[in-house]
Amino acid sequence: MSSGRAQPETARRRSGLGGAAAMWGGSEAWCAILEADPDLAEGLSPEDRRSATRALRSPVIVAGRPRWEPPSYDPGRTYGLLVLEGLLGRRVKVGPAVGTELLSCGDILRPWDEPHMWELLPPELDWRVFRPARLAVLDERITALIGRRPELAVNFAGRLLRRARSVSYLMAISHQTRVEDKLLATLWHLASSWGRVTSEGVSIPFRLTHEVLGEILGAQRPSVTTALGRLQESGQVRRGAHGGYVLLEDPAQPNM
Q1: Residue 124: phi, psi to the nearest 5?
Q2: Range 146-159 average pLDDT
Q3: Partner of 136 for a Cys bridge, out of 49, 58, 62, 115, CB 3.0 to 4.6 A?
């Protein structure tokens, strides 16, 4: 099994999708952003990295289950919210159709900044919390500091672009015909972002209901249940010890 399919080591170390969640409570804390997410300092010299690590300290907010009402910040001065731990779902409903975008460690959200073009056919938006989450507030001070370093500006902007590319990738997957193919490709996509390489395969450390998987795939819940059963029977996926999924075959040559 190739480890290139799962997260870089720094990202895996900070993923922490369980464990300490019950200890967070509702109190606000602070974090050193570049210690929590070292990849955001890529390109900085050692001296600049140390200086930026000291400077980029932000308040942390907590999102608890089952639903989350995002706080409001000045959209012109606040860069966004950086997910440090946990798993969130941004759920969009247009008429009878529902789609869910998953967000976790390293993703940057701007929940107060929705496109005005949707005013003619406004969607219903809500946020689900699948694992209690901690988010660093990239407030006005942090936004100003990011703007002083081109490397930081590029790295933080890259996280916003990563979300757009992930959504377009999943959209392409959703156009496949067989639900098994959609589901397997989606699970591998999740594993590439948040998976861990183990001796048995690549583990996705969280469990999603079949309904939520269907909202990600663009499929009905019963179809997802059937597809998951077939993937388990064929030896491509199995349940993990803590309710997640373990992918058992290298997807380099997918049968799609």
Answers
A1: -95, 125
A2: 96
A3: 58
Tokens (6 digits) for 163: 């979300």
The crossing angle, in degrees rounded to 10, of helices 210-217 and 221-233 is 100
Measured CA to CA in angstroms, residue 76 lies from 118, 135, 154, 163 at distances of 20, 19, 18, 20
Rounded CA-CA distance 193/109 in Å is 16
CA distance readout (Å), 98 to 101, 124, 137, 143: 10, 9, 28, 33
pLDDT tens, residue by residue, 3-32: 333 444 333 333 333 333 333 334 458 999
Band of pLDDT at residue 196, cut at 50, 70 and 90: confident
pLDDT-based confidence at residue 195 (cuts at 50, 70, 90):
confident
- CA nearest neighbour of 132 among 61, 231, 81: 61
Structure tokens at 222: 């019963």
* Cβ–Cβ under 8 Å, residues 196 and 206: no
Task: Give me the DSSP letters along 85-145.
Answer: EEEEEEEEEETTEEEEEEE-TT-EE-TT---GGGGGSPPEEEEEEEEEEEEEEE-HHHHHH
Q: Are 32 and 57 in contact (CB under 8 A)?
A: yes
In this structure, which amino acid lies at residue 210? H
Half-sphere exposure of 9 (CA within 13 A, CB side): 0
Give the whole-angstrom CA distance, residue 11 versus residue 106. 8
pTM for the full model?
Answer: 0.81
